[in-house]
Amino acid sequence: MEKENKSSKLTRQDWINQGLQTLAESGVEAVRVEPLAKCMGVTKGSFYWHFKNRDVFLEAILQEWVNGQTSRIIEQVETIGGDATTKLLYLFELAVQDDGRVENAIRAWATGDSKITTVLVEVDQQRLEYTKDLFLEVGFEPFEAMVRARMVYYALVGEFTIGARSDHAERLAEIRLQHAILTKKA
Question: Which SUPFAM superfamilies match (predicted)?
Fold first, then answer.
């Protein structure tokens, strides 16, 4: 009976959050209904209450990542306002708050799934374009703005790939120095 009560309290978002956590820890192959239900202490029926099947669930996980790690971050940066230099600093600081585990799992997932690859290319492009646009607002020419956007973006993705340092203060100090270097005009 306890499983039923817990099951009825679980939301679609609870399943998505657990799916993201499992994806980050073990990869897309581990994101399976039965093991997730067992981990969450519920029956599979709870899953099927919220999702038609695993594919729909995986799509929801992917969309949550896109929204959370791209759209909402851009919205947060735009909400703080200020000039482009201020927005860039806030964007960089937000980016280093992530440990990169889900990002890495999504990138690994994309290597075996062309649909995920397409979404990842779109996300990378959206992130780069937004960052480039901010560098344009700072006053850099289009080519230089894109080079600067790529430098910071590729450095962050590279850090995720290698493994984000756990010292948050060090990461913030480093990203602030990168910001100072990349926004300085000659």
Answer: Homeodomain-like (SSF46689)
Give Cβ neighbours of residue 6 (< 8 Å, ≥ 6 apart): 40, 41, 42
SS3 of residue 165 by DSSP: coil
Domain count, the chain: 1
How many CB atoms neighbour CB 20 within 10 A?
21
Question: Contact 67/20 with Cβ under 8 angstroms?
Answer: no
Please give the structure tokens belonging to residue 79: 């909400």
pLDDT digits (tens, 9 = 90+) for 59-118: 999 999 999 999 999 999 999 989 999 999 999 999 988 888 999 999 999 999 999 999
- The answer to whether the CB of 7 falls within 8 A of the CB of 46 is yes
Asked if residue 39 belongs to a domain, the reply is: no
Q: Which domain holds residue 141?
A: 62-183
DSSP output for 123-155: HHHHHHHHHHHHHHHHT--HHHHHHHHHHHHHH
Task: Write out the two tokens for 75.
Answer: 């919205």
pTM of the entire structure?
Answer: 0.89
Q: What are the φ and ψ backbone dihedral angles of 42, each rounded to 5 degrees?
A: -135, 175
User: How long a stretch of residues is the chain?
Assistant: 186
